[in-house]
Specification:
single chain; alpha+beta; Beta Polymerase, domain 2; Hydrophobic Seed Protein; 4 domains; two-stranded parallel sheet; about 10% strand
Length: about 450
């Protein structure tokens, strides 16, 4: 730990190193104790941070984070900054006791000679346990109720039983927290490594239903095929299978497609959207439930209904437009890979159309579909056809990379053929592009002939 903190200290401005009342604290000490290398430094000043800033000049700029709470950020470069805060209690010992979890309540002086650990946080780090010092700490900032599971997801720690009981008692207080702050925690949670463990904890403490009220109906609904399955159990099993395939990709049949999956899987923020889509993929099923004469369940258009519900919930949580649109898009089309894979006459053109429509999400969406299939009753569906679809998608993508960037024909060519302008242009051009990627059209002459045929067919 001290070696890690020493490296951080070497990056601090010299003027700060002369301050004897400054301490490393919070996530910086925690990460160093865990053998990680933090990219920033959390410091606490025994006094008023604002007063300290007045007496020093820094090579970077000072950004007020929460000036009313005496919290500031000193940006020292493009990839390094210092978060500085003043005391919130009469002394540092009491200040540490007010912090969210004991693992974040350890302070080390800048000269590394003094370690303050009033809540036994270092012991909890060794035991990989997440513990709150007292119930009041959760009441002081109810976002900490959710943050407990964010740390579970990112650190893989077990939740202390007493802390778990307190969260169960206080879970409804999360509704008093600004949605913008909840969004930030959710993105970190779903961008973590132990997401399933965190989701089960959210469910058992009822926090999951405070955050996503639509999931309550799923917990009360069963889908019946050959056997009964609770919808929320199925959803969390989907998240679990997705987690396994994402973080053990090299041990799965999708290992050859790592390059295609990398842009999403190697980005925590984009990976979070994929996992959120997994959590919400069947959110529309309770509203679309019907049964046939044999008692089997059907959920007609649950993907469309689910996309609307997911968009509405994430908008309420103040997700950015790009974020909620992406999750809604994945929910809307989560059945697309299933339908394509189950088609006994899967054509290259149909696969090319899938690749064009799904874009960079073509492989990640297939990965979600595989997790969905694995979480379903084994007698219902398998994944062999999905793996065949993966091969076909890869073939189309390889052709796409080899194909010329320009279209074989454009709207000007359609106009020269005497085809009136209108929506038909887009239909014809997209169809030709799909057939080109499928290898059925190879040159401009073939494309022009096919354009005439398509126009005649569309005209009826």
């Amino acid at each position: 730990m001290k070696h890690c903190l020493k490296r951080l200290r070497e990056r601090l401005p010299r003027s700060l190193l002369q301050e004897r009342l400054l301490y490393f604290v919070g996530g910086t000490v925690r990460d160093c104790a865990l053998g990680q290398s933090p990219q920033d430094a959390d410091l606490v000043y025994v006094g008023r941070a604002r007063r300290l800033l007045r007496h020093h000049r820094f090579p970077g700029r000072v950004v007020p984070l929460k000036p009313e709470l005496d919290e500031y950020r000193i940006v020292l470069g493009p990839d390094f900054w210092v978060d500085l805060s003043g005391l919130r209690a009469e002394n540092l010992w009491k200040d540490l006791e007010l912090r969210d979890f004991t693992v974040n309540a350890v302070a080390v002086s800048l000269d590394l000679t003094v370690v303050l650990d009033p809540t036994q946080g270092l012991r909890d780090l060794q035991q990989r346990r997440l513990r709150t010092f007292r119930q009041r700490n959760l009441r002081d900032d109810p976002l900490r109720l959710l943050r407990a599971f964010r740390f579970q997801s990112t650190l893989g720690f077990d939740l202390d039983p007493r802390t778990d009981r307190w969260i169960r008692r206080l879970h409804s207080l999360i509704n008093t927290v600004a949605p913008e702050r909840i969004r930030e925690e959710l993105l970190r949670l779903f961008g973590g490594r132990w997401i399933t463990r965190a989701c089960w904890g959210l469910r058992s403490t009822e926090l999951l239903f405070d955050l996503f009220p639509e999931l309550r109906a799923m917990d009360l609904t069963f889908q019946r095929y050959q056997t009964d399955q609770n919808l929320l159990d199925h959803t969390l099993a989907t998240v679990e299978h997705l987690e396994h395939w994402v973080f053990h990709l090299d041990d799965t049949p999708l290992a050859p497609y790592r390059f295609e999956l990398a842009p999403v899987l190697e980005s925590p923020s984009r990976r979070a959207l994929l996992f959120l889509a997994a959590l919400l993929h069947d959110i529309g099923k309770p509203q679309t439930l019907s049964r046939d004469a044999d008692g089997r369940t059907h959920f007609l258009n649950h993907d469309r209904v689910g996309a609307r519900l997911a968009a509405r919930r994430l908008q309420a949580l103040r997700f950015a437009r790009r974020e909620w649109e992406t999750v809604a898009f994945l929910v809307r089309y989560h059945m697309y890979p299933h339908h394509l894979a189950w088609d006994p006459h899967m054509t290259d053109r149909a696969v090319a159309r899938y690749v064009r429509r799904m874009g960079e999400w073509a492989f990640p969406l297939l990965l979600l579909a595989i997790a969905d299939a694995l979480a379903s009753p084994p007698e219902l569906i398998g994944i062999q056809r999905h793996l065949l679809l993966a091969q076909r998608i890869q073939t189309i993508l390889e052709r796409q990379r080899k194909a010329p960037q320009r279209r074989l024909i454009t709207g000007y060519d359609l106009q020269a053929l005497g085809i009136p302008q209108g929506p038909v242009y887009r239909q014809i051009l997209e169809a030709i592009q799909e057939e080109h990627l499928a290898g059925r059209i190879r040159d401009r002459a073939q494309a022009l002939r096919r354009a005439r045929e398509l126009y005649q067919r569309l005209r009826g």
